[in-house]
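To make the argument concrete, we let one protein speak, a sequence paired with a row of structure tokens, as a model reads it:
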Amino acid sequence: LNVLAGAVLMDPEVTGEARDLGRVGPWAVGTTKTLVRLDADYRTDLEGLSLSVAVVYAGERAASARPYAELGGEQLTVPAMTTVDLGARYPFKVRETPMSARLVVANVFDEDGWRIVAANSYQATDTRRVSLFLVADF
């Protein structure tokens, strides 16, 4: 079992004339104060088959540059989201060529969310998807 975990915890703040004049809020667009990722890979006893899981948590993010009076002087934000990906990898040979097949189910729980493209510009996050990769090592 291999486990890799990481986190970025920060408190970024916008400064400058536009902030001083109230034209932009204190939070940079698209940034989150918390990003956590956990990856685990388990190598089974079944001829090299390995199983993997990835869990990613992205905290609330600023979606607008300017604060809104309707929001109590706060910037528009998108909520935090957590996604889970599952995968399996199986190595094999075709004649003498090493190959591997990898199956990935991304966003297993079909979490809905928004990607911040720019201030007040959003793109829906990817829905649950299944991918199959076949790789040959020449």
